[in-house]
Amino acid sequence: MIVDITSIKKEKASPLSGMQKQKVTEVVLLACGSFNPITNMHLRMFELARDHLQDTGQYNVVKGIISPVGDAYRKKGLIEASHRLEMARLATANSDWIKVDDWESLQAEWLETAKVVRHHYEELHAEDHNKDDVDTVHHGKKRRVDENHSEISRHQERRDGPKLMLLCGADVLESFAVPNLWKQEDIAEIVGCHGLVCITRSGSDPYKFIHQSDDLWQHHRNIHVVHEWITNEISATHVRRALRRGYSVRYLLPENVIDYIQERRLYSAESEQKNADIILAPLQRYTSASSSS
Questions:
Q1: What is the pLDDT of residues 95-109, one digit of tens each?
Q2: Do residues 28 and 120 touch, judged by C-beta distance below 8 A?
Q3: How many CA atoms lie within 13 A of 287 on its CB side?
């Protein structure tokens, strides 16, 4: 008697073939910050976040965006955005998925992170919509979209597209509790509507912080905490201190970034005092708003 092994394998696999495959959502990671200067740890955060999200089987990370803050942020020691942008571009020159965006840094005024997230979300879905139009043209079936379609259908369309998540370190997460640094509605928008990927660091406990915050706990399913088992406590503040004291920062920053800094003598005792007597932009804005009200 001849047994058809192929048919047996198909019969065994048939129950699985009827199961619906888990939907995989495309994700774009956005990191906002000073990047003063960009370090290897900034780049490492993207790799950690991508591994974590893709290991869940629910996400496929397709792009990373670095968005340096503008000069109007007025943080102590913050050098010109043009230099920080160029260093970020040098650092990501060999990456096939992490890119640098200059929109935030070119704004005349400081922008809340929520507005930056909103901008990139709109850009992302505009690109996705244009891509869909091109694809449908190639198939000879270009869709006709009613300009007056409802808000509900528009939001549904966006939920089906790529997801934007804010990537940050545990220090940024904990800064949500600093008075007048963040607006509560901005936190709700970022975490509730988009999502947050938080990389742990030594001495931090993101889980405890989220648990103790009613606002964050409300959206805790949208917060992905990534534990960094290979601890790497590179701090841009410590890097700047080493640079102005003439110490080596090799292996803390990409080599081409170190060359750029040294050629232009960017970090010194004088540069560290920049904005020293100026109140940080968000503190100035929100403190003034609360006192006037």
A1: 999 999 999 999 999
A2: yes
A3: 9
Contact 44, 31 (CB under 8 A): no
**What three-state secondary structure class fits 6?**
helix
Helix residue ranges per DSSP H, 20-98: 40-55, 81-91
Q: Where are the alpha helices (DSSP H) in 61-112?
A: 81-91
What pLDDT, in 10s, does the model give residues 198-224? Answer: 999 888 899 999 999 999 999 999 999
User: Taking Cα atoms as reference points, which of 217, 164, 173 lies closest to residue 195?
Assistant: 164
CA 101 – CA 68 distance, rounded (Å): 8
* Amino acid (1-letter code) at residue 150: S
Task: Using alpha carbons, select from 118, 33, 72 the residue that is nearest to residue 282.
Answer: 72
Give the C-alpha distances (Å, rounded to integers) separating 215 from 88, 95, 183, 184: 33, 36, 12, 8
How far apart CA 42 and CA 169 sit, in angstroms, is: 9
Place of tokens 């947050």: 196
The DSSP H or E segment spanning 215 is helix 214-217
Is the pLDDT reported for residue 186 higher than 50? yes
Name residues whose C-beta falls within 8 Å of residue 177's C-beta, 6 or more positions apart in sequence. 209, 213
Going by their DSSP bridges, the two strands 163-169 and 98-100 should be labelled as unpaired
Which burial class, exposed, middle or buried, applies to 158 when counting CB atoms under 10 A from its CB (0-12, 13-18, 19+)?
middle
pTM: 0.84
Q: Would you give the DSSP letter of residue 96?
A: S
pLDDT digits (tens, 9 = 90+) for 21-47: 678 999 999 999 999 999 999 999 999
Asked whether the predicted pLDDT for residue 6 surpasses 70, the reply is no
Beta bridge mates, 223: 196
CA atoms within 13 A on the CB side of 289: 11
Report the C-alpha gap between 137 and 15 in whole angstroms.
Answer: 38
